[in-house]
Amino acid sequence: MRTPYESQNDRLDPGLSVIMSERRQLINVAYRLLGSLADAEDVVQETYARWYAMTRQQRADIASPGGWLTRVASRICLDLLGSARARRESYVGEWLPEPVPDHREWADARSGGRAADPADRVTLDESVSMAFLVVLESMTPAERVAFILHDVFRYSFAEVAEIVGRTPAACRQLASSARRRMRAPDAPAATPAAQRAVLVRRFKEAWEAKDIAALVGLLDPDAVGLADGGGLVSATPLTVGNEQVARQLVMLMSMVPDLTILERTVNGQPGLVVEHAGAVASVVAFDFEGDRISRFWSVRNPEKLRPWTTA
Fold it and tell me: How far is CA 9 from the centre of its chain?
């Protein structure tokens, strides 16, 4: 059922519903390009502002509004990526992408506890796992845009070239370089999804029990733990080695004994949400190698936990 507002706007612009139906696609593209849901929302808002800054005739002359919106959003993201490195150099501590929940758990503090608009949700698949997004951070802006648009969203290299401002052949090379970053030649076989869930559950149980030996057994010998507090909350520094990581985790549990750890889907993968005094304090994402946990990322910056909280 349409609201009076929607009906009035459809009369003013019959194409409004079609244009707004592209919002979810734009959110998905921008989130993968930027690793920040907040920035992705700003990009989409700016994209629509540019669409409605044109005259009605100019909009009518665009054969594919969806394609136009994606190109503009991607160009805005490319510009933002160019300045992101400088911004992150001044970021306090380690910078990690913003984690997103499963659609069934999605909440938005601005919605007063109501379910968020489905158009604002990120579609969860391997291209949005925390491990994937972390590797994307090592790419140049042009590599990232070429790879995401071509390999994930299946845009042709001719279309990518128009966005990046390079030739199709150059964009093909950018995507190829990005793929090499993604697929390390000595990478082990992927851990099956069911085994990932078991590993995370056993990790949770060992952490709750403060069982250092059990944690060491679950972690790869070269395991890495990394936290992002953004200077707003405390965050433990980079920790390397299964025993060091295990001891750090147990020390944290001992220092804050009233933590609650919940199993949740984080960026499409098994993960954990840590609550303190009933509020979300951290979202933990994992990466795996064989039958061990190789990395985990703990996002503690409250500004990055907005989709996980309710008012």
Answer: 32
